[in-house]
Design brief:
By secondary structure, the chain is α/β, with parallel strands linked by helices. It folds into 2 domains: about 5-160 and about 295-345, Alpha-Beta Complex (Quinone Oxidoreductase, Chain A, domain 1), CATH 3.90.180.10; about 160-290, Rossmann fold (3-Layer(aba) Sandwich). About 20% of the residues lie in helices and about 25% in strands. Strands 3, 4, 5, 8, 9, 16 and 17 form a 7-stranded mixed beta sheet that branches. A 6-stranded parallel beta sheet has the order 12-11-10-13-14-15. The radius of gyration is 20 Å and the shape is globular. It binds NADP nicotinamide-adenine-dinucleotide phosphate (NAP) and zinc ion (2 copies). Belongs to the zinc-containing alcohol dehydrogenase family. It holds the Pfam family ADH_zinc_N. It is an enzyme of class 1 (oxidoreductase).
Length: about 350
């Protein structure tokens, strides 16, 4: 019998979250049933729920920053045992056959990985995410959360953490490197912590100085308000690597100008409109404009272990199921310090 669990879902763009129940499939031999403790709210949940990235499958139960404990395992599961502290990120499956999957880069699966929500699973049913009490996931897409990282602050590592760790590691953020993190939100604050732990000199480029004190406390060496007249222009030629987490449509050119020759501007933020980039902005100084999509399963485990070793978790505000609409609004208004995390014990309808 499938397991029926409490969840929160939205019926369409702009529709409020409602308490509901969803069904989790019977455990297959390789499946793990997870009691979800916390689910982070990522801006991608909001882009998807508001239809900003095209068609969405409604009703939608979002959530791809999942932390909990293993409740039950299928007969052939070897990687996880009942009681283990585990996490699930943005993917729950992939084709496992293409050149990317066989190289261990499931996030770039050439047939498209299966998203934790708003995708069709191999059973032909829409996938449903972490704003729910339990989830069933193939063991190959379940991560181990190391001791020393509490589950609430671990949840956001499963998307925000890996999305910053992967490009920082790929472009070798480390001692002697000038790294800028644009946007001090859910992804951005993880970028500050991780780039600092990797040994880079870190600058936050935020719209204002409102979060400066936090940025410096979390590991930034410098904090610049891009809204201040001339502030970005004064940084021309400064950075080896800039990672932008901006979720909104902005002019990217001043950020390219802030790169050193041969510098890389990597976007992980996914605004709905295309960037406008004159070829000359890249040609002069052989600069690169790049993007990066989460990270592989192996790299996500590496990131979790790195975070445990460096005592890194997310800065979270724990909320109840009834506060999701308000939290989404606050994320859109850049009013989050720095990740909302839903306590899944509160998902049953309130009396
Ligand atoms: P978030 O918490 O809302 O952070 C985004 C930050 O962008 C805000 O805190 C704000 O920083 C800045 N920002 C917002 N509007 C801006 C504007 N008009 N001009 C300049 N800066 C602005 O969102 P998030 O959860 O970190 O996600 C950020 C983006 O990454 C979203 O587009 C999300 O979909 C995407 N994402 C991508 C991946 C991937 O694999 N590539 C994974 C997860 C999420 P300040 O207040 O400091 O200025
Ligand atoms: Zn996400
Ligand atoms: Zn594949």
């Amino acid at each position: 019998m499938p397991t029926t669990v409490h969840a929160r879902s939205t019926a369409g763009p702009g529709e409020p979250f409602e308490a509901t129940t969803i069904e989790r499939r019977d455990l297959g031999p390789k499946d793990v049933l997870i009691d979800i403790a916390y689910a982070g709210i990522c801006h991608s949940d909001i882009h998807t729920g508001r239809g900003e990235w095209g068609e969405t499958l409604f009703p939608l139960t979002p959530g791809h920053e999942i932390a909990g404990t293993v409740a039950e395992v299928g007969s052939e599961v070897t990687k996880h045992a009942v009681g283990d502290r585990v996490g699930v990120g943005c993917m729950v499956d992939s084709c496992r056959e293409c050149s990317e999957c066989t190289a261990g880069r499931e996030q770039n699966c050439q047939k498209g990985n299966v998203g934790t929500y708003n995708a069709i699973g191999k059973d032909g049913r829409p996938t449903e995410g972490g704003y729910s009490e339990k989830i069933v996931v193939d063991e190959g897409f379940v991560l181990r959360i190391p001791e020393g990282v509490d589950l609430d602050v671990a949840a956001p590592l499963l998307c925000a953490g890996i999305t910053l760790y992967s490009p920082l590691s790929f472009w070798k953020a480390g001692p002697g490197k000038q790294v800028a993190i644009v946007g001090m939100g859910g992804l951005g604050h993880m970028g500050v912590k991780i780039a600092h732990a990797m040994g880079a000199e870190v600058t936050v480029l935020s719209q204002s100085l409102k979060k400066q004190e936090d940025g410096l406390r979390l590991g930034a060496d410098h904090y610049v308000a891009t809204g201040d007249e001339g502030a970005l222009e004064s940084l021309r030629g400064t950075f080896d690597l800039i990672i932008t987490t901006i979720s909104a449509d902005v002019d990217i050119k001043p950020y390219i100008a802030a790169l050193k020759p041969e510098g890389v501007l990597c976007t992980v933020g996914l605004p709905s409109k295309p960037f406008q980039v004159p070829a000359g902005a890249l040609i002069m100084g052989r600069k690169s404009l790049a993007g990066s999509n989460i990270g592989s399963i192996a790299e996500t485990q590496e990131m979790l272990d790195f975070c445990a070793e460096h005592h890194i978790g997310a800065e979270v505000e724990v909320i109840s199921g009834d506060q999701i609409d308000e939290a989404w609004e606050r994320v859109v208004n850049s009013d989050v310090r720095y990740r909302f995390v839903i306590d899944t014990k509160t998902l049953a309808p309130s009396a």
